[in-house]
Amino acid sequence: MRTSLILAVSALLSTIALAQFGGAGGRVAPGVDLSGNWSPAPHEEEISDPAIAEFAGVPINQGAQAWGLAWSPSRVTLPEHQCQVHLAGYIYGGPLNLRIWEDRDPQSQKVIDIRQYISTYEQNRTIWMDNRPHPSAYAPHTWMGFSTGKWENDMLTVYTTHMKMGELRRNGLMESDEATLTEHFIRYGDMMTHVSIITDPLTLTEPFVRSQVFRLTTGEGQAWLYPCEYVDEVADRPRGEVPAYLPGKNPFESEYSKKIHVPVQAELGGAETMYPEIQADMKKGTFPALAKGPSVAPAAPPLGDIVVEHVQGNVYMIGGAGGNIAVQVGDLGALVVDTGNGRYTDKVLAAIRKLTDKPIQYVFNTTMDKDHTGGNEAIRLAGTTITGANVTAEINDATVGAQIIAHEKLLDRMSAPTGQEPAAPTGAWPTDTYTHGQKEVFFNEEPVTAIYQPAAHTDTDSLVFFRRSDVLATGEVFDLNGYPVIDLAHGGSIEGELNALNNILDIAIPKHEEEGGTYIIPGHGRICDEYDVLEYRDMITMIHDRVEDAVKRGLTLDQVEAANYTVDFDSRYGPGNKFVEAVYKSLKK
Predict the structure, then answer these.
(1) What CATH class does 308-532 carry?
(2) Are 30 and 153 in contact (CB under 8 A)?
(3) What are 317-334's pLDDT values in tens digits?
(4) Superfamily of the domain at 2-14+33-47+75-217
């Protein structure tokens, strides 16, 4: 299979390195010194942006092509996209200055890491050389990802995971956050070749290879700084608007193919366009269909494998117990946001005890869903109430267990009218509710605020914001493992869901170039920052706009589902038919 030819590049590079530097008979200790200031010597691609719909030579699948054709250049005028950074597999291809140096152990002088400063967007990259493991599936992703390196004779080979979703090419082709990157750095005198091999199971059918050549510079060069601060480029833009082309409506789809006089199908990418056989296809006027992407979302870590990640400040995230759990700890004890599905409460409590030996004082619920409230009763009873009364039991139980705080709608949903069976046992009900806007407490020297999100996933949703730690827990409003569930039967709506996602973006502030700053704990999935929510919001908005257009044109639900309006995103979030149905019914209301 032709994929094997691509994968053979790494082995070939190793052979070349052996030949160039003397092979096995060369020096005993592998490695060369890559330190210095480097500047690009363009040889493969001109340093310019590719044209819209210029996808030839990229082994994309149907979903990646649909995403690229939906992309509008106006999207980069959105404030949060203006400072979006190129990913590690793409950033070396543009105009930049590159500085490389080593960090060594002061006693042994062994190399701990190889550091890189990339002037484009002021990126600092660390390549760990001490055999440390890659982070867990719940750890945040960054633009440069997490990289480990090893010397293969005189070639540095680097393996990178935990990269954000971002641009595969700067014309709408996207690389998913499931992609991995293998790189080779080969120095020969004052020149250095860099080869990147991107593997993405969600958008690519074969590995995608790029290469660049750098020249060692004797001076400092110029333009080492690239600060970015976003502004309002478009005045009076409606809140939450995401510029994108509706399916089949990209006016520039054939513009580039006409310019270079080739059939449009030959320019729209796919593995076939990487090989000479495409010329025969162009002569015949027949082109093979692009491969479909995966039909299911990437597998989440198994339930029951409890993982604790420090987010920042006083806040930790516990994953593996159903919905994600946030825990704030300090001198007064613990405050817990959501309690998991209840099947792993013993493990959750053991994890909390490792963080603090003080009692659980507060429990906040973000939603009514059982994978977020299933452990309410057991975790409440493991704690201690410090103020107020338990409104769900007798007044003499006021000091029994921690307080459970939620919006009153959540209490309404968990309880039931007199004589009917409640949805949850009374011990799991909120003991303290709020009715409008938000609920505030000051705990462990930090303001903590529950902020109501009406008619989003349900009518019970709250965001919980740790102001000093700068961490936001979102519950089911933001589910990185799948499309949001719009629970129409329990007060959910697509407009409320989008409003909640835009509220998250209003709260979150990135630290540098759309990375870090405010960290976000989703209902499911890894720790995120503003950019992760931004991509999710953009996706939901684009699907909303497609379905809304279909509703205005009088299409039936069957016709909307047949149109496959989620083809761009299904490989990342799973089949979108249920979500599209909920969006359609919500808009029809």
Answers:
(1) alpha beta
(2) yes
(3) 999 999 999 999 999 999
(4) Calycin beta-barrel core domain (2.40.128.20)
